[in-house]
Design goal:
Layout (H helix, E strand, L loop, with lengths): L4 H5 L4 H24 L2 H17 L1 H5 L4 H17 L2 H4 L15 H15 L3 H12 L4 H8 L3 H18 L21 H26 L2 H20 L2
Helix pairs in contact: 2-3, 2-5, 2-8, 2-11, 3-5, 3-12, 7-11, 8-10, 9-10, 11-12
């Protein structure tokens, strides 16, 4: 799902390059944000702010080895920072998510089961298991980003995987936090389940965007406001 630097930055004006980058990466980033936060509104707010910051710093971001990784990290930090605020933690959960119109009944059922299971986890456990078992981040990288010890990463991951393994009827052995699980592999059914849910969510956001652009112009304009707001901010700094 990641873009290469060449695909992201080739040709066109900076505004056009950013618009293309945004359109290509938004669905997958929004999907991961929902899985991290278990709240669509919070997720979309964090994603929007990440893209606005990326546009304001586009010359720097586009020169990165992976602009998408930069935006993803910014989104995660936004969610983590807001998650420490009491009023944010107590916001009601809003898990109304866009359905992938091309998904089969079985794919939809499996994705919803994974999302519901994630929703039963405490915020820290959910963060750690998504970052590790979906995004393939190491204990050390998670520790550095979340500001917790490597031991805390392992403890939260162990509890999260054990809980999800039970709810999703996955082998209990996969609840153990071991070095062999530092990256996603086809032999890890839990990672496969989470990745399937992320793909389903991503397709849903993509389908929703197409429907809004083709149907309700007013609502489409609200979605398009992300690059527009970022572009205005960039111009204001000139």
């Amino acid at each position: 799902m990641s873009d290469t630097v060449e695909e992201t930055t080739r040709g066109g004006r900076p505004e056009e390059e950013f618009d293309a980058f945004y359109a290509r990466t938004y669905p997958w980033l929004a999907a991961r944000a929902v899985m991290l936060s278990d709240n669509r509104q919070n997720a979309e707010d964090a994603v929007q702010e990440a893209y606005i910051e990326a546009m304001r710093r586009w010359p720097e971001v586009r020169a990165c080895a992976s602009p998408e990784a930069w935006v993803t990290t910014t989104m995660r930090r936004k969610l983590s920072r807001d998650g420490r605020r009491w009023w944010f933690r107590w916001k009601p959960v809003e898990m109304s998510v866009p359905a992938a119109t091309t998904a089969s009944v079985e794919e939809t059922a499996e994705a919803l089961a994974a999302l519901r299971a994630l929703g039963t986890l405490p915020p820290r456990q959910r963060q750690v298991v998504v970052m590790h078992s979906l995004e393939g981040m190491s204990y050390q990288a998670i520790s550095a980003e979340l500001g917790i010890s490597v031991g805390s990463v392992g403890s939260n991951l162990h509890k999260a995987r054990a809980r999800l393994s039970l709810l999703l009827d996955v082998s209990p052995e996969l609840g153990r936090a071991t070095e062999r699980l530092l990256t996603r592999t086809p032999k890890d059914p839990l990672s496969v389940a989470l990745y399937g849910a992320a793909e389903w969510l991503s397709a849903g956001f993509r389908d929703e965007g197409r429907a809004l652009r083709g149907g309700d112009g007013a609502r489409s304009g609200a979605r398009d406001d992300v690059p527009n707001r970022a572009r205005d901010g960039m111009r204001g700094r000139r």
